[in-house]
Amino acid sequence: MSRRSKLIAALTDTAKINPDQYSPITSANRLNSFGYALAGWVYMLRRQKNTRIQAVASIMAMVLALWLGVDALSLAVLILAITIVWMAEFLNAAVEAAINVATGELHPMAKVGKDVASAAVLLGVTASVLIGILVLGPPLIDRLGLG
Questions:
Q1: Catalytic residue numbers?
Q2: Which letter does DSSP use for residue 1 in this model?
Q3: What helix, strand, coil percent values describe the chain, rounded to 5?
């Protein structure tokens, strides 16, 4: 197989896999898929305490941004930062659940997987806090007359 053929195969082989052949549960119905996504969100809010903390922090940040009257671009940056934290937390929970199903023992690589997924959340939270300070700090200082 030529180098070019190997490269093409590497780029296209995954797309040839039909998930219906390997997964007992797939949904062809978009409305059902949306329902599954909402069920995942409800699960996170009900079972993952960090997500409830994130919900409160997200609402507080958005209320503060609206109270401060930040411009649309700043609001978009805040929404993006908040969304990244939520996505990281959701993926962290998914990785942890998959690892828990895959192994019942305390395997060192299971710990690595869980710790790295948690680190992704920490990275997202850190970036989000810094973005919040940069976006909300100056208008808050002005609003409070501290500048």
A1: 89
A2: -
A3: 80, 0, 20
